[in-house]
Design goal:
CATH class of the largest domain in chain A: Alpha Beta
Structural class of chain B: mainly alpha
Number of helices of chain B: 13
Number of domains of chain A: 2
Strand order of the largest sheet of chain A: 6-7-8-3-9-10
Largest interface: A-B, 27 and 26 residues
Number of helices of chain A: 12
Oligomer: heterodimer
CATH architecture of the largest domain in chain A: 3-Layer(aba) Sandwich
Largest sheet of chain A: 6 strands, mixed
Largest sheet of chain B: none
Chain lengths: 346, 248
């Protein structure tokens, strides 16, 4: 049974939809990224999962318990780090965690050990006795993480765990998440793709409140509308004519566009002379096109050094997946602005 | 009720670690000391005293001086309770722990009630002083304290409710102040309104009359029932408000 099971979840703030008809699940033991641009409904979804907010419609089951009917059971089986990661500034780190441990009903005899192991796991050993008010953003984030780890809940829900951190701190948090994935199922939200690539095995992509993709990272990459073929070829007599080769390749059936070196470099190609990035047409199979490309190049007395499938970056997919939705959002924002202007002028 | 103990402990910790409780204690005792000094010097010049009209009675009733600190202190004690948690965002971590709304509300309420009671404790010293130079009926002093405890309990419950309604401490304090002063004024209506239903209602909610009775050692169960009802209603409304945030 999945540890998180969300079915047809919707949440409306008055007339504004924050989450629309979202369905996804997370299996025990997975590390799943919840990916989406800012304002896509990530935090709202996580707040519903953790019982902080009620859903407008739909069913949410976490660790086998219905969140709407049995929030306390759900909350007892998960560790949650809210996005704001707000803490009580007047408490010391260890006081705060002891308070949280008691609140989470960790037995008195186990409390001290639970707090100590959370402090150690989150790397807080050197600030144990410091008032939270004096901690840097990075350390506060770690206190929030330590709080989520208290009592070793089977499920961790982390809302943008690296938001507002500097690159070193980000790397540390990601390393920590990697260490934790042996012991916990982790569901973390982020708008940073490299984070998902670094720590997650699977991603659920949300845009404008709708789940637009759900699968392993390779599956999501494959969603890109057209994939690329990278070809490197040089003329045997050494007199290269990039433009002629480009024109030759562009004429082949199944080829949409051909880019020469500069664009190719961006795609992870070596950038050496004679490198071309071929964008395939929507229905073309990359094997067929590769065959044609090689045949054509050989016929043109060129030696083919390299032919491989270009790896579409997650960024591209992300942009494609969320683009239409973003455009909607822009339109909405524009009309809202117009509406406001109308109001102020009248 | 889960969450009651840890929250009670944390709230007390916060009140006494931050200067708020100490500042309140200082100002409160300064006012009470002044209050007591005025009463004693007033009665020292009175040749004949009625049996039920001494400084003890005046300390707990009959003058407006006993109410002023109460009306100020209660909103200041309760303003933080929920407003600050919501402003700073800590409410999210609090309510996603396995706690119940009732436990959270009661933990916070009992903490301010205990702090309020603590404010009054040093004033027992005044009656110790009086007992050295005259006779003191400690049972009457006891009912006097019962009176300030009951009215405080009601005002604090109203204050906690106000704090759950507002997102800023200042608004919470003002809301609570308006509410408790409103209740106090409504009680004064028993001397203003013509005989009838409104006047009866005013008399029933009158803190003024309640304190006057209790300061003379008269314990009327209606006063106890009113204080308990008002407290329970305000706390229940707070619990429902906290639960309603899930749907905001």
């Amino acid at each position: 049974m999945p540890i998180i099971d969300v079915r047809r979840l919707s949440k409306w703030y008055g007339p504004i939809p924050a989450v629309r008809d979202a369905t996804f699940h997370v299996e025990a033991g997975e590390v799943v990224g919840f990916l989406g641009p800012n304002g896509a409904g990530k935090s709202t979804t996580l707040r519903i999962l953790t019982g902080f907010m009620g859903a407008s419609s739909g069913e949410v089951t976490v660790a086998g318990h219905d969140v709407a009917r049995d929030p306390a059971r759900v909350q007892a089986s998960l560790g949650y780090m809210p996005e704001s990661c707000a803490l009580y500034p007047e408490m010391r780190v260890v006081e705060y965690l002891s308070f949280r441990a008691e609140l989470k009903r960790i037995a008195r005899s186990k409390r001290k050990i639970a707090v100590e192991s959370a402090l150690r796991d989150a790397g807080l050993d050197d600030v144990v006795a410091r008032p939270i008010a004096n901690l840097s953003k990075g350390y506060r984030q770690r206190v929030g993480l330590a709080d989520a780890l208290l009592g070793e809940p089977p499920l961790l829900i982390l809302d943008e765990p690296t938001a507002g951190l500097d690159p070193n701190q980000m790397r540390e948090v990601r390393a920590l998440v990697k260490r934790l994935r042996d012991k916990h199922t982790i569901f973390l939200s982020t708008h940073i793709l490299s984070e998902v690539e670094a720590v997650c095995s699977r991603a659920v992509v949300i845009a404008r409140g709708r789940v637009v993709a759900d699968g392993t990272l390779d599956e999501i990459r494959a969603l890109s509308r057209s994939s690329d073929l990278i070809v490197r070829a040089v003329k045997k007599d050494g007199r290269d004519d990039a433009e002629a080769t480009r024109a030759l390749l562009a004429k082949l059936p199944g080829v949409q566009t051909v880019d020469a070196t500069a664009a190719a470099a961006a795609q992870g190609a070596t950038g050496e002379p004679g490198t071309f990035v071929i964008r395939l047409g929507p229905d073309a199979s990359s094997d067929d096109v590769a065959e044609r490309v090689v045949e054509a190049l050989v016929a043109a007395n060129q030696s083919v050094r390299e032919v491989r499938a270009g790896k579409t970056s997650l960024e591209d997919v992300f942009a494609t997946l969320t683009q239409d939705q973003t455009r909607d959002a822009d339109v909405d924002a524009d009309s809202a602005e117009l509406h406001q202007q109308g109001e102020t002028t009248t | 009720m889960s969450g009651f103990w840890p929250i009670l402990k944390r709230e007390l910790f916060v009140l006494f670690v931050t200067p708020l409780a100490w500042v309140l204690l200082f100002v409160f005792l300064l006012l009470q000391g002044l209050h007591f000094y005025i009463l004693v010097s007033h009665f020292a010049t009175q040749p004949g005293l009625a049996v039920d009209g001494g400084p003890v009675q005046a300390f707990f009733g009959q003058t407006v001086l006993v109410y002023l600190p109460m009306l100020f202190v209660c909103p200041l004690l309760t303003m933080r309770a929920f407003a600050e948690e919501r402003r700073s965002g800590t409410i999210e971590a609090l309510l996603t722990a396995p706690v119940g709304a009732a436990g959270v509300v009661l933990g916070k309420y009992v903490a301010v009630l205990a702090t309020y009671a603590t404010l009054w404790v040093p004033t027992v010293f005044y009656f110790g002083l009086l007992s050295r130079i005259g006779e003191i009926d400690w049972r009457v002093v006891g009912t006097g304290y019962l009176g300030v405890f009951l009215s405080g309990a009601t005002y604090l419950a109203v204050g906690i409710f106000a704090s759950a309604l507002a997102k800023s401490q200042l608004v919470a304090a003002m809301l609570a102040f308006v509410a408790v002063v409103g209740m106090f004024m409504l009680g004064l209506g028993e001397f203003v309104f013509p005989p009838g239903m409104v006047r009866d209602l005013s008399g029933y909610v009158s803190v003024w009359s309640a304190m006057n009775e209790l300061s003379r050692g008269v314990v009327d169960s209606r006063r106890l029932v009113f204080a308990a009802t008002a407290t329970v209603v305000a706390l229940f409304a707070t619990v429902r408000t906290v639960e309603s945030w899930r749907w905001g």
